[in-house]
Write a structure and sequence with these properties.
heterodimer, A: about 325 residues, mainly alpha, about 0% strand, B: about 350 residues
Chain lengths: ~325, ~350
């Protein structure tokens, strides 16, 4: 350390001019520990996170290893309308066309993950960018236009809108379906992000950064984005649940083309055949329903757990991480 | 209430309406091959001409008759005509399939959708607000944890699966409720007690299935109420010896409900959305079913008309909610809202 009597503010608060910069690997290790390992350690103490994680891991396995293990279902594979838990080849029974119900459920999983991924990325990504921008430019024309756009999309009921759009464009690619669904979901979230930004802006440390003359982009990055991260993750999880709900409802209504396997397609076919009054058809309807509920249950649980984890993160950090001297969270 | 705020909100509402109308117009134009090509097969099939070539002029005229969009004219003229016939003449086009004006079809079904929608919202939010408040008062009790898990579970069940389960259990297995239609087959419509009873009876299951959409509000309410309960002014109110009921309603209740407002606003659009699936499951002839049938039949004028009316209803509902909210929370209408 050099001996200077007067303190230079810029030097004191700038990341890049730390007196003894830690080595790259140490910094990487520290970042990793703070952002991934510490929350993970806390997550293991939260039963909701453990349950949600386990369920989602199982779905992940189903969508990867499961597809590889299962046989691609086609009509006439097995005897028709077999009950569940009788034969190892079709553990959940077969449908009206002799296809294994379990195989169909498994084959629908990868596309479901693709839809969730695309939907959550679009919804949360657009919401974060719009919310941050408009929160920080409060009162300007950009803020007004963005929020008006959000208000307009909030006003248009989502499902009818998506139905009209899909009826016209007939998307088959799961990513495209996910993007369509996500486009409808960002505005509400963007509004919430904006109001969060507004309240964070009032915090003394952000004010301090502004007084020190730090440029807006770096305030956004260092003080605000970090604070919003937990909030965004929680909502990504909730958005995933909405994508499941809405995509399945579109397949259940028969509005999306039946070119892929989907749990909603199974439900649609079973429902059309009056599964509710024909008990031999019930497994065809019930097992996809359980699959959907369990997966969304995991996402809801995950969002709850993350909410709790990130709220106590500050306390836990003291006990568990290597270095507490990170400037901002 | 501040007049400037009312003016601003009214302007915003009118603008949103125009944007939505424009949006449906753009949707017509962005159909593969434009509106003429997209509607050609439908129109030909309905007018009884099969195959062969058709006079392009005649086809364009027919598209104009059905959709209020004449592909022959320049785009801005088409747009002007579309707006003019919609707003000045109240003409939303004609159903290709049924040959009736779209507006008539919609007017016949709107009241039913509004009926189940309003009841679902009212029921869903009332129950979840009270549940949330009760959970907050009994924080960390057995009741709290059991209800929390219950609400989380309800949140993970899509409303349409809930509807199917209700149909199966209460409709088919126990035959407690009717599972389709808007009123009994042998009941004559009119202001009779029998008819009203039948309507309510038939609406019960759809309303309950849509109502669970609002249960997420219970957890938010719980969180808000817990935070408010810890606030100083509640303690002060208690120390002042105010009646428990007054503290609960005016101090805790009011302050924890207010932040739920945005959620409620989005809930209006959500409940209207859900009518599409729920009305199809219960064969309930409302706007949702109208839209659904129009999709299957490629009846584009009806499709656009229902989307437009769905949006207009939400727009009005949010507008009214916004203005009344200004009365409840004076901060919002002074212009310096906390957003």
């Amino acid at each position: 350390m050099t001996e200077t009597d007067e303190l230079d503010f810029e030097e004191l608060f700038d990341d890049d001019t730390e007196r003894e910069p830690p080595s790259r690997s140490a910094r990487l290790k520290r970042t990793l520990d703070l952002t991934v390992l510490a929350p993970l350690r806390i997550a293991l103490h939260d039963w909701r996170a453990v349950v949600a994680g386990t369920i989602l891991l199982l779905y992940g396995l189903m969508g990867t290893v499961g597809v590889w293990l299962a046989t691609k279902p086609s009509s006439g594979d097995y005897p028709k309308l077999q009950g569940p838990f009788q034969e190892l080849a079709y553990p959940l029974g077969t449908d009206l066309y002799g296809r294994s119900i379990l195989d169909q459920i498994i084959y629908a999983t990868p596309d479901m993950f693709r839809m969730i991924f695309a939907g959550a990325v679009v919804a949360v990504g657009v919401a974060a960018v719009v919310g941050l921008l408009s929160g920080f430019m409060r009162g300007t024309a950009i803020d007004a236009v963005l929020m008006m756009l959000a208000d307009i999309i909030i006003t248009i009921p989502g499902l009818p809108l998506i139905i009209v759009i899909t009826a016209i464009f007939q998307p088959t690619n799961p990513y495209v379906v996910g993007v369509f669904l996500g486009v409808d979901m960002w505005p509400g979230l963007a509004r919430t992000v904006r109001s969060q930004v507004l309240s964070i802006r009032e915090e003394s440390y952000v004010e301090a950064s502004q007084i020190m003359g730090l440029p807006t982009p770096s305030i956004l990055r260092r003080d605000v984005a970090g604070q919003l991260m937990p909030f965004i993750l929680v909502n990504a999880s909730l958005t995933s649940r909405r994508v499941i709900f809405e995509s399945v409802s579109l397949y259940f209504l028969g509005i999306l083309p039946f070119t892929t396997y989907n749990w909603g397609v199974l439900m649609n076919l079973a429902y059309q055949e009056n599964a509710l009054t024909r008990s031999e058809l019930l497994p065809w309807l019930v097992f996809p329903m359980i699959t959907i509920i369990l997966m969304s249950f995991a996402f809801v649980l995950l969002s709850q757990a993350m909410d709790a984890i990130f709220n106590v993160r500050l306390q836990a950090r003291h006990a568990e991480t290597i270095d507490e001297e990170e400037v901002t969270g | 209430m501040h007049p400037r705020y009312v003016l601003k909100r009214t302007g915003q509402m009118i603008l949103t309406f125009f944007v939505t109308v424009t949006f449906t117009f753009v949707l017509y134009q962005s159909m593969p091959g434009g509106p003429a090509e997209a509607m050609r097969a439908m129109i030909l099939a309905e007018s009884g001409q099969v195959g062969g070539s058709v006079d392009l002029n005649l086809l364009n005229q027919m598209v104009e008759h059905y959709a209020n969009v004449n592909p022959d004219k320049p785009l801005h003229v088409q747009y002007y005509d579309y707006l003019h016939s919609l707003i000045v003449q109240g003409d939303m086009g004609t159903s290709i399939y049924q040959g009736e004006p779209v507006l008539d079809l919609i007017l016949q079904s709107v009241p039913w959708t509004m009926f189940i929608g309003v009841y679902a919202l009212a029921l869903g939010y009332t129950v979840s607000l009270f549940l949330g408040a009760a959970m907050a008062y009994k924080e960390r009790s057995l009741f709290d944890s059991v209800s929390s898990i219950g609400v989380i579970f309800l949140n993970s069940v899509p409303y349409y699966i809930f509807a199917i389960v209700l149909v199966y259990v209460l409709g088919i297995e126990y035959s407690l409720f009717p599972i389709d239609g808007r009123y009994g087959t042998f009941v004559d419509p009119g202001f009779t007690l029998e008819f009203m009873g039948s309507v309510v009876w038939h609406a019960t299951l759809p309303v309950v299935s849509m109502g669970i959409l609002a249960t997420g509000g219970a957890l938010t309410m719980r969180g808000n109420a817990i935070r408010v309960l810890g606030d100083d002014y509640v303690r002060v109110a208690e120390l002042r010896g105010l009646r428990r009921s007054r503290v609960a309603m005016q101090y805790v209740g009011r302050n924890s409900v207010l932040p739920l407002y945005t959620q409620f606003m989005i809930g209006i659009a959500g409940v209207l959305s859900s009518t599409v699936v729920v009305e199809e499951i219960f064969a309930y002839n409302g706007m949702g079913k109208l839209l659904y049938d129009a999709v299957l039949l490629h009846d584009y004028p009806v499709l656009m008309g229902t989307l437009l009316v769905f949006t207009t209803i939400t727009l009005l509902a949010i507008y009214i909610a916004d203005l009344t909210y200004g009365y409840i929370d004076p901060r919002i209408s002074t212009g310096d809202s906390n957003d």
